[in-house]
Design goal:
lipid biosynthesis, two-stranded antiparallel ribbon, CDP-OH_P_trans, 2% strand, mainly alpha, 9 helices, 275 residues, single chain, CDP_ALCOHOL_P_TRANSF_CS, Four Helix Bundle (Hemerythrin (Met), subunit A)
């Protein structure tokens, strides 16, 4: 018996590294997590700490905010490509878990923390409310990722707003610099969409190319704003407004499609009942 135990331990030691090998897709997923962590870092060092220490370097805060959001956009690119690479090549047994954990950092923690810091910098009186909104965003992403792991959906569709899209929409709402109450309500609305049953198309084919182009364009807008280029503020607000409009319009199209499908099914059922 001891010899059998020793042999099983050796076999387990030999098999362990096989399951720990990272694929190319897994490496991209880890890049996603790294970008999310660095977004939190720049939000802290460039926005929160200067605010707490009484620094008036608005340029530094603008650069740090732009850098943090650009890192979230880069995380979205990594998230887009790791799925494509996994389908074309392969992913390790850890692939799905790594993807969920990385998404939680980049599209849950990072945007929620951005909301929290926004509330603290905007007005100390709103600090507790903004903390509550940040928790709502974080929990929405946690619930969405958990549901995604447990629910089987029809091919080509997501149930609820995808977490990368939701994170970028939340950050866009903050950057629009609207009054506090409308900003808060819009953020909660996005959190609700992430856990809703509204269907969103998966970024594949032309849609994936369009999404990649939109992310790159958003990076350019953020860079123009960070370096105080002429019209940079207006360009950034326009881009943020378009992101928010997309977040609001897609559910309307999805709802209209579901209504039309329901009507068509009823018509087919009535036609089948006719003699």
């Amino acid at each position: 018996m001891p010899e059998a135990d020793d042999e099983s331990e050796v076999d387990g030691a030999e098999e362990m590294p096989l399951s720990m090998r990272l694929s190319i897709a897994d490496t991209l997923t880890l890049g996603n997590a790294t970008c999310g962590f660095m977004a939190v870092y720049f939000t802290t060092t460039g926005i929160l700490i200067p605010h707490l220490t009484g620094s008036d370097e608005t340029g530094m805060a603008r650069h740090s905010a732009a850098t943090a959001v650009i890192l979230m956009l880069m995380a979205a690119i990594f998230d887009l490509f790791d799925g494509l690479v996994a389908r074309k090549l392969r992913s390790s047994p850890m692939g799905a878990e790594l993807d969920n954990l990385s998404d939680l950092i980049s599209f849950g923690l990072a945007p929620a923390y951005f909301v929290l810091v926004y509330g603290m910098v905007a007005d100390d009186a709103h600090q507790r409310v903004s903390a509550l909104a940040a928790i709502v965003v974080l929990l929405a992403v946690v619930l969405r990722l958990a549901r995604f792991s447990c629910v089987t959906l029809k091919d080509g569709m997501f149930q609820g707003m995808p977490s990368p899209f939701g994170a970028l929409t939340v950050v866009s709402i903050v950057l629009l610099e609207l009054p506090f109450i409308p900003t808060l309500l819009a953020i909660v609305g996005v959190a609700w969409l992430m856990v809703s049953r509204v269907e969103y198309p998966k970024p594949r084919g032309i849609l994936a190319v369009a999404m990649l182009g939109w992310i790159v364009a958003a990076m350019g807008l953020l860079a123009a704003w960070a370096f105080d280029a002429p019209g940079g503020q207006l360009l950034l607000q326009t881009g943020c407004a378009l992101q928010v409009v997309l977040g609001a319009v897609i559910p309307l199209f999805a709802t209209a499609r579901r209504v039309n499908t329901f009507r068509d099914n009823r018509r087919e059922a009535r036609a089948a009942q006719l003699p």
